[in-house]
Each structure stands twice: as C-alpha cells, then as structure tokens.
Amino acid sequence: DASRAHYAEAWPSLLYAACLRFNANIHAEPSDNTEAPEVVDNRTTKMENGNCEFFEPVDERFHLLFGICMEALCAQRDISVENTVFVLLSLVTLLDSTENRARLLKDRTLAIELCQIMHRTGLTQESIEALLLAA
C-alpha cells in the first residue's frame, strides 16, 4: 500500500519509458554469435480481438501500450496537465515508427477513435505543450 501513491503519480513516466523501449526494440536484431533457444509455445498462434487478429506478441504489446494511452486520454478529468503531456508524448513516441502506424491501421476503428480523442484533447487542453503534441 505504501508504493501505491508513488505508482499513482509515476505511471505516466513509466508509460513513456515503456513506449521508448518498445520503439527501440522493434528494430533490434539478434546478434549472429548468440543463438536464441527454441521455445515451445503451447498457446495457439492466433488470438482474436473483435475487429482484428493479432499473430505476433509485438502486436499485443503495441495494442497494450496504445490502449493505456487511449484510456488515459479518455479520462482526462482524472489526470493533471503534466500527466496528459506524458501520455501524449508516449502516444507520439509509439506512433513514430512506420511499423506501429501500420499496426494501428489494421483496424480502422482504432484510427478513427484516435482522431476523435486527439481532436477532443486539442479542444480541452490549455497547455501549449499538450496542444502541440495533440496537433
């Protein structure tokens, strides 16, 4: 319980760090001198989500981070302006990669929802930094 207050305050920074790391690991290729051990995965390789099918864990991680950003922007009354800026930075960082933009466009409803939330964010924020990130 003692750490709950810390994480309640620090989660936007952690989200931003997770998005930075996710983008850094997209292009990371395994080195030639290390062989990855083969791991048997008993799960099915296909997971379904109402509108779209995800075949790779990287897609699932993208949608997890994207979903956290979208949820936070939908509940803007509950977060400070500084936290909103961190969430917008996280979203911009996440969508900086062309692969991630392609993942987003696999499901057009997500892209439409993103446009609506960014429009609302641009209309409701008073911070110049948040407005520039939402543009």
From TrEMBL:
<dbReference type="GO" id="GO:0008104">
    <property type="term" value="P:intracellular protein localization"/>
</dbReference>
<dbReference type="GO" id="GO:0016020">
    <property type="term" value="C:membrane"/>
</dbReference>
<dbReference type="GO" id="GO:0006897">
    <property type="term" value="P:endocytosis"/>
</dbReference>
<dbReference type="GO" id="GO:0005829">
    <property type="term" value="C:cytosol"/>
</dbReference>
<dbReference type="InterPro" id="IPR040108">
    <property type="entry name" value="Laa1/Sip1/HEATR5"/>
</dbReference>
<dbReference type="Pfam" id="PF25468">
    <property type="entry name" value="HEAT_HEATR5A"/>
</dbReference>
<dbReference type="GO" id="GO:0005794">
    <property type="term" value="C:Golgi apparatus"/>
</dbReference>
<dbReference type="GO" id="GO:0042147">
    <property type="term" value="P:retrograde transport, endosome to Golgi"/>
</dbReference>
<dbReference type="GO" id="GO:0030139">
    <property type="term" value="C:endocytic vesicle"/>
</dbReference>
<protein>
    <submittedName>
        <fullName>Uncharacterized protein</fullName>
    </submittedName>
</protein>
